[in-house]
Write a structure and sequence with these properties.
CATH class of the largest domain: Alpha Beta
Radius of gyration: 22 Å
Number of domains: 2
Number of strands: 13
Order of helices and strands: HHHHEHHEHEHEHEHEEEHHHEEHEEEH
CATH topology of the largest domain: Aspartate Aminotransferase, domain 2
Number of helices: 15
Largest sheet: 7 strands, mixed
Distance between the termini: 64 Å
């Protein structure tokens, strides 16, 4: 049967790569895929080395806690069954954590999945989305994929606010009748800059009712600044607010891909219409549920991150390098030269960091806070590269 119909199918198929491109949705044609951090196995294979370290993807170097590991291990026995499509237990637990109704929860295959869902729900080719210069690369990808228009607000230059940080006034100037979404990462990735409670609340209050504002709090658990807001507590006042969180960072579950959004129940209802069935697997649900009850591990990771950040900042100072103040588990350092060249030289020494020229920061490298030994190895390699 397959052989009988295959020649006829060939006759109607496009005959060149360009014609396949013509078949794609307009927003997809010029889209560049997201480039993740280089895997350790790929580096070791390419360079014929071993014992490489990766400080490129803002992962938790200490991994998940014992409760999450035990729960994930137990859940493996049920792999022949589909997961709970509603994520009932996890949604209930998250609702208790945030003192919200479970109807406010949308689960995602990482918060990246939720961000994509939000774009598909609220954007069309007639609409616009606003985000900042140096913003997370997923925002322009999600916006362009649905054919909407991206409006990029310049970051602070240091004259009116922290350099490289969100300029909320510039964002507000770009909001118009066609605007449907505003994305704000707090702390921002890759810069690590953050917004305080008063300025962020004032900004949301000034937005028109037809504009949804997405506060991406992927690094929420790491932030220790006193004025940093928990915007999940603002949902009752701002029905146009969506807050996204993830288990990939401080909870150490990046490999399982699980995140969530908090929003008004009517908004969550829309997001859940688009959310794919079974988008969060059973192992991820079990591990995340257990991780929420392991506060000791979480706080230990936060403390170690604070110590590691101090180690890196001290090392940069000793090398005469400046860095952007960061509230996350990563830091952007200004190498004073091509970040891509330094990155390539570090690879040859078995150290993976993240060049960020694609974020408009050609001299910077984004470095994840690792274990003390990893931080020391990176700093030593960086010193060698700078002096070569």
């Amino acid at each position: 049967m397959q052989g009988r119909f295959y020649p006829k199918a060939l006759a109607i198929m496009p005959t060149s790569i360009d014609s396949y491109l013509d078949l794609a949705a307009p927003g997809v044609r010029a889209l560049q895929p997201y480039q993740p951090g280089k895997p350790v196995t790929e580096l070791e294979r390419e360079y014929g080395i071993s014992n490489a370290i990766k400080l490129a993807s803002n992962e938790n170097p200490y991994g998940p806690g014992r409760l999450a590991l035990a729960a994930a291990s137990a859940a493996i026995e049920g792999l022949s069954r589909y997961p709970d499509g509603s994520g009932y237990q996890l949604a209930e637990r998250l609702a208790r954590k945030h003192q919200l109704d479970p109807a406010c929860i949308t689960l995602g295959n990482g918060s990246n999945d939720v961000l994509d869902i939000i774009a598909r729900v609220f954007l069309t080719p007639e609409h616009e989305a606003v985000f900042s210069q140096h913003a997370f690369a997923v925002y322009p990808i999600a916006v362009q994929a649905v054919g909407a228009t991206a409006c990029v607000a310049p970051a602070h230059d240091g004259s009116r606010g922290p350099a490289y940080g969100h300029d909320l006034a510039a964002k507000l100037e770009r909001v118009g009748p066609a605007t449907r979404l505003v994305f704000i990462a707090n702390p921002n990735n890759p810069t690590g800059t953050w917004l305080g409670s008063a300025e962020l609340e004032s900004f949301i209050s000034a937005l028109p009712a037809h504009v949804m504002v997405v506060i991406d709090e992927a690094y929420f658990e790491y932030v220790e600044e006193a004025d940093y807001p928990d915007t999940s507590t603002w949902l009752a006042r701002f029905p146009n607010l969506i807050v996204t969180r993830t288990f990939s960072k401080a909870y150490g579950l990046a490999g399982l891909r699980i995140g969530y959004a908090l929003s008004h129940p009517d908004v969550a209802g829309l997001l859940n219409r688009v959310r794919q069935p079974f988008n969060v697997n059973s192992v991820a649900q079990a591990a995340a549920l257990a991780a929420l009850d392991d506060d000791d591990h979480l706080q230990q990771c936060v403390r170690r991150n604070r110590e590691g950040m101090a180690q890196l900042r001290s090392g940069f100072e000793a090398l005469g390098l400046s860095c952007i103040d960061s509230a996350g588990n990563f830091v952007c350092v200004d190498t004073g030269r091509s970040g891509a060249d330094i990155y390539a030289s570090l690879l040859r020494k078995g150290v993976i960091v993240r060049p960020v020229a694609n974020y408009g920061l050609p001299r910077h490298l984004r470095v994840t806070v690792g274990r003390a030994d990893e931080n020391a190895r990176f700093l030593h390699a960086l010193e060698q590269v700078l002096h070569d």
